[in-house]
Amino acid sequence: MQFIITWILRFGMIEFFSLFFVLINVFTFSLYVIDKRIAVKSKWRISEGILLFFTLAFGGIGTLLGMCFAAHKTRSRKFRFVVAIGLIVALIPVTHIVHGLTIGRTIRYVEIEFRSERWPAELDGYRIAFMTDMHIIADEDMRRATAKLNERNLDLLLLGGDFSMHNAHYQGTVREIAQIITTDGIFGVEGNHDDYRRLFSAKEQYGITPLNNSGVHIQDGFYLAGVHDLWNRSPNIEKAVAEAYADDFVLLLSHNPDVSMAQSTDGVDLILSGHTHGGQITFFGFPFYLLRGSITDYGSHFAYGFSYSADGAPVFASSGIGVYYTVPRVFTRPEVVIFIMYNEEFKIAQHIMRCTL
Q: Which residues pair with 115 in a beta bridge?
């Protein structure tokens, strides 16, 4: 079984299921054509149960084509009804496959106006880009994202962790990210797939500052903190925010959002996380995979977008920009999120989100 899974991953999951879908519809088409031909000759027939089974087992398109091509079962109300159901069943994987092969591979740039009374008024309009879960993103794709971000007048870039350490792929990714121009620099934390020693060394080589259960004052009234990964080491929010002043706006980076449910976030005004990938492969956006409990202990709570920590701090979980090896994104587009900060009363429902290619 492990060999089969490994082979599918190497071949490409979405390519594998695309091939499977085509083959099952060709097979179903053939069943109807063959059954019609042997029916004309009054020979042994393919049972209706088999025909109906493959119609409903993602073969609805093949059934429709077979019925029309061979003029077979077209007068049967039962078969007309079942083929209608079969087409609906078949269109569900078709929709997901098409999304995974097209839109699911296109990076979007999401702009969110984040408003908080604790944000320094003199920094209104401050632009913070958040990029996480790079994994095996190709250097060429990262280069294009860098060019896009350099058109957006960023003040700060934050990295949420999870690079690909295999064959030192992370080095090229870090090198490309370092070309992004910001006013106040680039900062990042580790993810659960990172060897933090090698990653932090590469970041420092390219002028990117690692946050290691630590923090830094970016501007007067704005404190940035970052913690270890929950699965790798020992995140400590209290230590990371220890040097913040009482009236600072505190932004915390934590790769895994579950930290915000296990530790106090008192004094933290916004938490940025990744890790869940929005569910990676979803059913029209619903992240069934997260309900398994293998990635997060909180189901779909941290699937995507805004939620809250155990003690009420807003947490934003990004779907991330890369892919985990050859596992496709389906209805969870890769993204970079840009927060535009304003000093106003905080109301999570009033965030204005704009998405561009």
A: 342
The pTM for the full model equals: 0.89
**Alpha helical stretches, state H, 195-258:** 196-205, 237-240
Q: How far apart are the first and last CA of the chain?
A: 39
Interval 323-339: pLDDT, tens = 888 788 999 999 999 99
Name the domain boundary from 101, 134, 152. 101
Rounded to whole angstroms, the Cα distance separating 72 from 179 reads 62
CA 316 to chain centre: 13
- Per-residue pLDDT tens digits for 174-209: 999 999 999 999 999 999 999 999 999 999 999 999
Are 93 and 115 within one domain? no
Per-residue model confidence (pLDDT) at position 345: 77
CATH number (domain holding residue 302): 3.60.21.10
Let me know: does 122 contact 150? Beta carbons within 8 Å.
no
Partnered with residue 270 across adjacent β-strands are 251
Number of domains composing the chain? 2
Same domain, 147 and 230: yes
- C-alpha 265/C-alpha 342 separation (Å) is 21
Predicted confidence at residue 67, as pLDDT, reads: 92
